[in-house]
């Protein structure tokens, strides 16, 4: 089945089906607990006037999720050129600035226009990249930006220079390397022949599903339109459509999107958060300094249900247990000034495991809703060290509340009022990272807090393969005997 070009009328049919039959449920988050308010104002790409415009954050817009290329010449928004970018038709194909625009963004502008929308949010143009006030605020608001978007366009085919298959300069490329077998009664069997190495773990580092930033962008989107070399795929909260299949054979109103299934739950979901932590660590960043930023939206989403919020991605309510992540194979230490060695955010590799989080959390909480328990109910963590955090704004030192180990939180039928939302802003200025976690050294974290402990921890810059587990297993009491 070979085609060239993209049938925008069909995509409009998918869009219309969602709008008509789902009654706005895929656009609005009615539950106040799950709702994330957008920033007061945002920059958008005006695809009609071909410029960048500052508008209310409540505007109707699309978002683009893609992989940045390695070419340093493509256009970005800066304090020096934002006024020029705000000029009418500054992004036209024939303009000096427009000629620098990556193909993927150019194609996304066309998709936005063809679908009847006017505004598109693109990080490299809508975040002023050298503004040290604007940029941290927008990065901290990524959950709201993608969560309130009408649709996220996903470029699942290389980096920003490749464009969107079937759109723009790519509209004549063959996009469907499928074989079709005709069966009786008009049934067609489609055989997908993926290219060698198409498994996610075998994809190149620059692939969409191997990049850290794209994880939270896709998860936080209510509706997505994914472009890959084979076809275009639609997904909303209640339905999915594939370009290669007949629409009448794939209508379903019983699906839930990732944002409903995995994020913004009223009770702490340590298991799902742990899976995302492992996924994130296995992906790649162009700059290690983005290690905290690229996971900040997921941290913000899960912080809503976790008492105390997060400390560099480590849940405070299970702080001692959450330090029990372990590498199954050597990991690479990220050279980031804001990601400490004791947090999973400070490491990169496919061998990180946080399975002990679920075991320790589920067994002490007796959570009747979850079944994926790794150990028996005798597993208990006995904290034997004092941990502190320091408010970077006031200098006040506070004990870390590992509230999950208290008697009240270890009973059945936990009261949801025990949990509360904690904002998770990104530090707005760089800090020197720790040379070690000994004594009373402090380091900032996602909550504007610093973490220290009275004792010893793992040395910075080294992969602790089995030592970390051995050091901490003495804290786990199983069947009333110490495991060493």
TrEMBL record:
Superkingdom, taxonomy of origin: Eukaryota
Biased composition (Basic and acidic residues): 404-422
Domain Heterokaryon incompatibility: 61-217
Transmembrane segments: none
Residue ranges of the region described as Disordered: 403-422
InterPro entries, per database record: HET
PANTHER family attached to this UniProt entry: DOMAIN PROTEIN, PUTATIVE-RELATED, HETEROKARYON INCOMPATIBILITY DOMAIN-CONTAINING PROTEIN
This protein's name: Heterokaryon incompatibility protein-domain-containing protein
């Amino acid at each position: 089945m070979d085609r060239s070009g993209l049938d925008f009328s069909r995509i409009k049919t998918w869009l219309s089906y969602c709008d008509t039959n789902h009654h706005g449920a895929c656009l609005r988050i009615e539950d106040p607990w799950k709702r994330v308010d957008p920033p007061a104002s945002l920059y958008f790409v005006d695809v009609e006037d071909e410029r960048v415009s500052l508008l209310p954050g409540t505007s109707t817009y699309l978002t683009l999720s893609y992989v940045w290329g390695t070419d340093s010449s493509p256009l970005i928004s800066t304090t020096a050129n934002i006024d020029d970018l705000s000029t009418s038709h500054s992004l036209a194909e024939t303009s000096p600035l427009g000629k620098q625009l990556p193909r993927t963004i150019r194609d996304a502008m066309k998709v936005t226009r063809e679908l009847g929308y006017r505004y598109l949010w693109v990080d490299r143009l809508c975040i002023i990249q050298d503004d040290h006030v604007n940029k941290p605020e927008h990065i901290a608001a990524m959950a709201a930006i993608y969560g309130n978007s009408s649709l996220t366009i996903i470029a699942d085919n290389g980096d920003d220079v490749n464009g969107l298959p079937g759109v723009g300069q790519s509209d004549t490329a063959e996009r469907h390397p499928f074989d079709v077998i005709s069966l009786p009664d008009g049934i067609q069997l489609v055989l997908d022949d993926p290219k060698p190495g198409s498994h996610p773990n075998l994809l190149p580092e620059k692939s969409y599903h191997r990049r850290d930033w794209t994880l939270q962008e896709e998860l936080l989107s209510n509706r997505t339109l994914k472009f890959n070399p084979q076809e275009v795929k639609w997904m909303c909260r209640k339905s999915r459509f594939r370009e290669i299949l007949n629409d009448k054979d794939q209508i379903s109103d019983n699906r839930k999107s990732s944002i409903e299934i995995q994020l913004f739950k009223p009770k702490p979901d340590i298991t799902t958060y742990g899976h995302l932590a492992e996924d994130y660590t296995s992906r790649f960043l162009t700059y290690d300094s983005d290690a905290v930023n690229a996971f900040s939206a997921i941290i913000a989403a899960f912080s809503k249900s976790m008492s105390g919020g997060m400390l560099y991605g480590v849940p405070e309510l299970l702080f001692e247990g959450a330090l029990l992540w372990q590498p199954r194979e050597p990991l690479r230490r990220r050279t980031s000034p804001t990601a400490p060695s004791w947090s999973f955010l400070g490491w990169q590799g496919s061998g990180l495991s946080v399975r002990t989080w679920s075991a320790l959390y589920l067994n002490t909480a007796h959570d009747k809703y979850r079944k994926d328990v790794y150990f028996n109910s005798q597993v208990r963590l006995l904290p034997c060290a004092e941990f502190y955090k320091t408010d970077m704004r006031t200098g006040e030192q506070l004990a870390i509340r590992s509230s999950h180990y208290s008697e009240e939180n270890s009973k059945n039928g936990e009261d949801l009022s025990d949990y509360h939302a904690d904002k998770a802003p990104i530090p707005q200025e760089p800090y020197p990272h720790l040379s070690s976690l000994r004594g009373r050294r402090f380091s900032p974290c996602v909550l504007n807090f610093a973490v220290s402990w009275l004792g010893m921890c793992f040395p910075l810059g080294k992969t602790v393969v089995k030592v970390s587990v051995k050091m901490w297993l003495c804290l786990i009491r199983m069947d009333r005997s110490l495991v060493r």
